[in-house]
Amino acid sequence: MTRQDRYACLHCPYGHETGREPYGKMKSCFSYYCTKGGRIKKIAGKADYTGLVPKWCPELEENK
Question: How many of the other CB atoms lie within 10 Å of CB of 34?
Fold first, then answer.
């Protein structure tokens, strides 16, 4: 995976999306997290997410 792969985090097995509360009032409070390596690291909130893979991603070809 390269940094320019749009929305690759959404298809990654370590990427998770939170905030899908079916009865909650704040339905727009989504966040994206990476759980690679047993750690939980926030990628971005839904409003701030550009779709680019973060520079610190352990799955990037340049970080392997």
Answer: 21
